[in-house]
Amino acid sequence: MANIASNFKINGDRLWKTIMEMAKIGPGIAGGNNRQTLTDEDAKGRALFQKWCDEANLSMGIDKMGTMFARREGTDPDALPVYVGSHLDTQPTGGKYDGILGVLGGLELIRSLDDMNIKTKHPIVLVNWTNEEGTRFAPPMMASGVFAGVHTLDWAYAKEDSDGKKFGDELKRIGWIGDEEVGSRKMKAFFELHIEQGPILESEGKDIGVVSRGQGLNWLQVTLTGRESHTGSTPMPMRRNAGLGMAKITSLVHEIAMSHQPDAVGAVGHCDVYPNSRNIIPGKVVFTIDFRSPSFDTQDDMERRLHEGAKEICNNLDLELEIEKVGHFDPVTFDEGCVSTIRRAAERLGYSHRDIISGAGHDACWINKVAPTAMVMCPCVDGLSHNEAEDISQDWAVAGSNVLFHAVLETAEIVD
User: Fold this and answer.
1) Cis amide prior to 262 (ω within 30 degrees)
2) Which of 335, 398, 337, 355 minimizes the C-alpha distance to 1?
3) pLDDT per residue over 176-195, tens digit each?
4) How far is it, in rounded angstroms, from Cα 219 to Cα 312?
5) pTM of the predicted model, to two decimals?
6) Where would I find the H helices in 214-330?
7) Cystine design at 240: which of 177, 226, 264, 308 (Cβ 3.0–4.6 Å)?
8) Cα 176 from Cα 123, distance rounded (Å)
9) How confident is the prediction for the chain on average, in pLDDT?
């Protein structure tokens, strides 16, 4: 650590140019990106990333989930590598920075090491995880989940998109299926740089978020069944209105989350209403609830209260109720050693910083199960993400990448 100078910094202009070049692939309709996983656009983004890695003299490995691993050798080839990266896939209406900053910030730190002729004892491996977003093929963080042993490869391959196309078939179709066994790699540590996707850092004027924990998540799919009937001729007391049930449960979700402030959140996201006609009382609704908390106890309490409250609501409205858990991961506590390394990097560089809890899921949350892991965050404008209007400043991107650079340097160990 002593020989890591505070003037060791990445090339900010080159980083920004690289981000903007990647953003040209899979452009959205409102200034963002649509580069969903295993699409032709994803394949083009991967090819550009491969080109940049080749130019940096990195050796590329690809596993059976299509995850890309670009390696810079260390002076000790037997030393465990330090991994760094994120994802290049986007939401259908995604921004230019979510995930992309973490991959290209990692590429820039390797380019900067070469510029400075800095050698490290440990190899450094840059990662592009497949299907972090989970939009086309649910759930999110799929490849990192298989890597960490949370999911099986066959399970992932069998997942289908809305058109019935299977993940395994599409991975093969775009030509990015590797032969390396998933999860066979060992890591000294993994670092992920990401935009905050929330408003805290910007509102407090902080340069860097040192991510100490990640929220656990429960996704619950609720199906309410009542009876379709005419909106004009059905007396109010005789209605079995599934739409009303959804409205009351939506309010319940908000009430439950508010009772666990400041860190818990909850909302109804996707919903389908049947038959979705203006003059028919809904006979069926299917909707999803997203509960998140960094506390196991809070996570369990929110789910319990949802089940109890929804049952009471449906009994009062004469509705049938079905609740299915369609997504879950436990709250995450990141490795204290890696977290401290990030904190020291921010202090060495003179950046203002604060500890922060990640409100979103990231590949680092799964990798934390198999290797010491931590995250760096930078602000984003108005906390907006998963939106084409997502925006960050070049200064924020550079600050986050510099902290990442120093954290990786300290962990990979500079060789004089």
Assistant:
1) yes
2) 337
3) 999 999 999 999 999 999 99
4) 20
5) 0.88
6) 242-258, 296-317
7) 226
8) 24
9) 96
